[in-house]
Amino acid sequence: MRIRIAVAVCFVLAIARGASAQIGYLWTIDELKAKADLVVIAELRATNDTGRRTDHPKLRPAFPVIEMESEFEVLTVLKSDARAASAAATRVTLKYYRHDLDRWQREHPPQPGLPPQGAINSGSTLTFTSGHGPYLLFLARRPDGAYEPLSGHTFPTDSVYRLEKSGS
After folding, report:
1. How far apart (Å, rounded) are the C-alpha atoms in residues 64 and 101?
2. Residues 6+ apart with CB under 8 A from 25
3. What is the domain count for the chain?
């Protein structure tokens, strides 16, 4: 009996050790504003795939992503970037990652008789829609002068909000 219990405990510990979960930080608006280099309300102008395929900088095991770049026209600056060359910039470039599910499924083919593996614990991804209202962006400045979501690349949606008129 003791051997069975010991084996069961070892089995549970082995499974639990191999498991991991992504837990995001719950940002408050005050924290976002205080830590952001730039806070703006802006309209999406264009989104492009930069052509850079890589692995997510924070997720382990490695998770394939595609670097994206969106250009926004600034409508209102709520907090200006003191390090920016021009505080009165009318455009801002946001770089972020999109999940590369095609590459993920090529690298993790299903076993015979089973469905393809899904992407579990891969965080969130940004999806911008042109013409669907302005966005409230809390951004961190990158060394190259572009910006990225303040909340990071695992949960970028925590620092990007689509604004809607009330009552619509």
Report:
1. 7
2. 151, 155, 158
3. 1
Give CA–CA dist 56/112, Å, rounded: 28
Which pTM value belongs to this model? 0.75
H or E stretch at 73? strand 64-79
Q: Residue 65: count other Cβ atoms within 10 Å of its Cβ.
A: 24
Identify the CA nearest to 98 among candidates 44, 157, 46, 143: 157
**CATH number, domain containing residue 81:** 2.40.50
92-134 pLDDT, tens digit per residue, is: 999 999 888 778 677 777 778 776 666 555 677 788 877 777 9
Q: Is residue 8 domain-resident?
A: no
Q: With respect to residue 58, please indicate whether it lies within any of the assigned structural domains.
A: yes
Whole-angstrom Cα distance, residue 158 to residue 28?
A: 10
Residue 122 within any structural domain of the chain: yes
Dist. CA 16–CA 42, nearest whole Å: 44
Contacts of residue 106, defined as CB under 8 A and 6 or more positions apart, other chains included, come to none
101: containing domain: 27-109+117-162
Q: 33 lies in a domain?
A: yes
